[in-house]
Amino acid sequence: MIPESLLELGEFFGEGYKPVLDFHGWRVAMLRYCDAFDVKHLHQVERHRETNEVFILTAGEADLILFEGADKLEKAHVVPMKLNVAYNIAAYGWHHIITSKDAHVIIFELTNTSRENSDYIELDPEQLAAVKSQLRFKEA
Question: Which CATH architecture is the domain 19-132 placed in?
Fold first, then answer.
């Protein structure tokens, strides 16, 4: 067996988001489909004030939702993610992700990323319609 001082493994096959590795101030998490990442439950976006956040889709399909704007949401952008490409969302960038049921996403962010240093904003009906019109995923 290889000692943990040489190799640490992180895996997650459940639903939702789970940190799996933490080292030198960085967190690696895995995100898998759950209701929060389904288009029919889309209602808000978030931003992290102290870190960029990197998303890598390794299975399934996912759309990244991004909004321009600082304290108020402006133009919406939807980015269909490609497999095995790193998407780096800047600190203060409003975002959310919608995934297929078989999606698997790896996330890199600072270890201290939390609700205390993140902001959340509800989408109004016009913003929601603008996003949904660009998504590959439609409500069932």
Answer: Sandwich (2.60)
Domain ranges in the chain are 19-132
pLDDT in tens, the chain (140 residues): 899 899 999 999 999 999 999 999 999 999 999 999 999 999 999 999 999 999 999 999 999 999 999 989 999 999 999 999 999 999 999 999 999 999 999 999 999 999 999 999 999 999 999 999 999 998 76
What whole-number distance in Å separates Cα of residue 20 and Cα of residue 33?
Answer: 16
Of the candidates 1, 34, 3, 2, the one whose C-alpha atom is nearest the C-alpha of residue 17 is 34
Length of the chain: 140
